[in-house]
Fold this sequence. Notes:
The complex is a heterotetramer, with 2 copies of chain A and 2 copies of chain C.
Chain A: H1 3-19, H2 41-55, H3 66-69, H4 72-81
Chain C: H1 5-10, H2 21-39, E1 45-49, H3 53-66, E2 71-75, H4 84-98, E3 103-104, H5 108-114, H6 116-125, E4 136-140, E5 154-158, E6 164-168, H7 171-199, E7 202-203, H8 209-214, E8 227-228, H9 235-245, H10 249-252, H11 267-270, H12 276-287, H13 292-299, H14 303-324, E9 328-329
Parallel strand pairs in C: 1-2, 1-7, 2-3
Antiparallel strand pairs in C: 4-5, 5-6
Helix pairs in contact in C: 2-3, 2-9, 3-4, 3-9, 6-7, 12-14, 13-14
Amino acid sequence: MDTAGNQKKVRAFVVENLLLGEEENDFSDSQSFLESGLIDSTGILEVIAFLEEEYEITIADEEMVPDNLDSVDNIVAFLQTRRVG
Amino acid sequence: MDTAGNQKKVRAFVVENLLLGEEENDFSDSQSFLESGLIDSTGILEVIAFLEEEYEITIADEEMVPDNLDSVDNIVAFLQTRRVG
Amino acid sequence: MGLNSEQKKSGISFDVLELDRTAATEEIVTSIQSVVLKKFRKRGAVVGISGGIDSSVVAALCVRALGPEKVHLLLMPEGESASTDESTELGRSLAKSLGVEPQLEDITSVLQGAGCYERRDSAIREVIPEYGPGWKSKIVLPSVIQSDQFRIFSVVAHSPEGQEIKARLKPEGYLGVVAATNFKQRTRKMMEYFHADRLNFAVAGTPNLLEYDQGFFVKGGDGLADFKPIAHLYKSQVYQLAEHLGVPEEICSRPPTTDTYSLPQSQEEFYFSLPYDQMDLCLWAKNHGVDAQETGAALGLSAEQVERVYRDIEAKRRMAVYLHAQPAFSGRPDGATS
Amino acid sequence: MGLNSEQKKSGISFDVLELDRTAATEEIVTSIQSVVLKKFRKRGAVVGISGGIDSSVVAALCVRALGPEKVHLLLMPEGESASTDESTELGRSLAKSLGVEPQLEDITSVLQGAGCYERRDSAIREVIPEYGPGWKSKIVLPSVIQSDQFRIFSVVAHSPEGQEIKARLKPEGYLGVVAATNFKQRTRKMMEYFHADRLNFAVAGTPNLLEYDQGFFVKGGDGLADFKPIAHLYKSQVYQLAEHLGVPEEICSRPPTTDTYSLPQSQEEFYFSLPYDQMDLCLWAKNHGVDAQETGAALGLSAEQVERVYRDIEAKRRMAVYLHAQPAFSGRPDGATS
């Protein structure tokens, strides 16, 4: 499992798909998507679709919580529990 | 030809169809429809349709000028030249 | 709707939403007259009526303001909505009570021409391949009250044989179903503007404050209007006016529905976190700086649950920025009047 | 477009409309990025392209701002418009020059479903009873320049055999034809929003300043958009940007048309008092307090003629109040964010 690789890949996805017009430099891996207004009901679907496709995993409803998905760091930690990447 | 009758009838038409939410008391028979913003491209069609139907006349293109149609007084004077009412 | 006296003493209650119904009616009636006749110089108003409480109250207010002969009521059913027949019947009953002959415009053929049904079904088939003719569907969200899970849209489909399938939507599928379904609200608005243009009337919008604030409307659809006479009223205040204005009882007692999907869908399973009266009070409390603890006490919810509703309100407001935005310019227009 | 040096010294000239094209482009591009991506949080832009200069420039600006893969171009022909084939061809040529594959959405079946053609034809038949299948028509206004006559709308119809009939419209007929024809602009906008919703994109509006200021757009039709990148530019400035942005020559050299009626119709016979470049200068002059005498000198018109154009501008602005108005509320909404 390549945590640094996951970190890079997830961050690249977020920059490309959620950050939109915002400066990448202002965005840290620990930053909450929700609190920074980066994510909406479509955005969270995009995050889940990205993870399920990229890592060939299935995310259960009860796993779709901010603790697992609301920042780059949280996602990387979640991927670690799923032992993928 | 009943000029007073025409005056009353034309004014009633204007009050009903052009004045809309405005106070009738503030509106005089010499008042220009154009300058008071009472008339638009539909309003002038309504005035012409009213005159043609009510007085069974045909108004020619060259008669459709403010001098003939732009106030109650102008219309009454125009009807007088057409000897109707 | 009242709470007991101890709760009243210690905190907020549903009483905060009580309207002076006569004064509220008077204010709206005067405003409709002033806007429609004076400002817009239009001869009357078009109201699309759905049999729901909001459009019924708007229609009744317009009739009070302009008179029944200056209000054009449109019934716009379409082939497949869960409640079409019932809605049309309620709409007719409302129109009758107002002394207006409503006009029926069946929008099914417009929707077919636009590919509304076909495009939606093909989006659904991406997650439910067997979805086809005779099936019915709706989109649902999990409750925000029960956990802090992200609210992920699912499609629920019923086969003609009564089998139920529920499937989580991918982004394209979700956007595809919603985009196709939005043809319904947009077609209805297009039809309202056709009649308004033809009659030289203005178009009334029916969103209430809850819908307006939270962006529960379609841009260019039910969000589009020349005037919005109840957009400043909480949903429970709309009910109060309905009663005051004599809207038929069968309309007042009908539970709110989205009326857009072929399966019956409540507003809270698709959009709001709570039933409308509780949602009203939460929004009022949030607007007035009441903390989650106190609001929870009035509603029988925990502070944590109310916090989640508050966060959901904030999140919806962020999305509503796009929905409320006036067209953005790229420079200052020379001398434009407005 | 320049005038001779004596005129320049003594008064205004077309030079006042000269843009710094690079700076203007830069300003618009930055604004599109900021509004679409940051403010609306949308992924790209939908532009309906007609083969006309305005939509071509808007499309080119969006591609500069967002990149070709983030711009969805829609061609939306319908069965009967005078210039459908030519428009589609020009639209394709534009899309090709921008490196974008356009999507074709034929809107004829939506218009048929909405009764657009049928309703319009029955309004025309009120004054031209023989109007029927195979006939073509347009609406025209007399010139404001030639006399101080009120501008009364007439319908001009051509029979399949080539006979021309012109008839003055009554109010219901005029409103009926315009209302039915407006289905075209509204259907196009509905289709743009469908694709925008599906792709999570924003919708670009294409009115220029002349159209915006004078209300030459349909409310809920081409007047509806999320952003309007050229609404601050005079029409002749749009032409300048077209050249700067490399819009295909055949689009730049095509005379402006309304593209809504089945007979070819110029914009000045239906709406504006003068050809666009003269109209631009009159509007600029009026906005900057230049008197009719001086403006007339620059345009080869009498002061009296310019006064009539000024009055026509004022009259159109009064009507545009309705078109520009945000939805009017009947009370102050509690805590709403915008």
